[in-house]
Design brief:
Structural class: alpha/beta
CATH topology: Rossmann fold
Shape: globular
CATH superfamily: Vaccinia Virus protein VP39
Helix content: 25-40%
Number of helices: 8
Distance between the termini: 38 Å
Radius of gyration: 17 Å
CATH class: Alpha Beta
Strand order of the largest sheet: 3-2-1-4-5-7-6-8
Amino acid sequence: MKTRRNWSWSTNKPLLSSLVEVAEPKFILELGTGLHSTPIFLNSNCKDIIFIDNDQRWLNHVKRRNVFKPYHKTFFHDLGPEVSIGAFPKELTKAKKAEIKDYYNKLLDNISILDKFPKLLFVDHFTCCRTLAINTLYKGFDIIAYHDCEPRGVRWYEYYFEKELENNYSHYKLRTPRSWTGCFIKHGSDLEDKLEGNIKKHIQVYSKEIGVTPNQLSLVKEHE
C-alpha cells in the first residue's frame, strides 16, 4: 500500500462526509474554503451554503477548481495587511480581536433568524480567528466542526471553548497520524449514534485513498 505524502490538509474528509450524510444540514457555513472540504459541501443536497475566506486569491483558486451554483454565496473577509494566515491569537491586538468578534456577532445575527435546521459550521480559516469564530457563532449552529485539533494544534489555535458550548454539545475528535478534526453536536438529537456508525465506511474509503490502514483513524468522544 503506497501512502500519499501530503494528506494533512484532507484529514477532515471522513468526518465532514459523514456529518453531511447523517445530518443532512439545511444550512452550511464554511469559514476557510478548501480543496478537500468545499467539494463535500458543494456536492451535498444543501442549497443554502455560505463560504467565507480571509484570502481572496485562495478563494478564487478554490472557485476555479470547483463548480459553484448560483445559490452558493462566497465572501471575502478582509482582516487587513497586518494579519497573516499563520498569525497566532496572542499576536492580535485587543482592538483587532474586538473587530473580528464584532464581524462574527453580526454574522450570527443573520444566521440565527434562518428557519433552517440543522445548521452546520466548519472552521478551517486563519489561525488567529478560529476560536473567536467558534466561541461567537456556536449558538447559531447544531453542529460545529473544526480542523487541526491534535494536541499541538490545540495550543497553536488556542482551542479553548466557552463552557456553555462544552456543556450543551457532545465533543468528538477524529484522530489520525497527521492532523485531527473535531466536532460538537448539540444535545437532543440522534446524530451521535448515526455518526458513530456511519463514519466507519468513510474512514474505510479515505484510508484507501491515502494509503493507510483504517485502524490508524478513530472517532473518539471526549469526556463530558
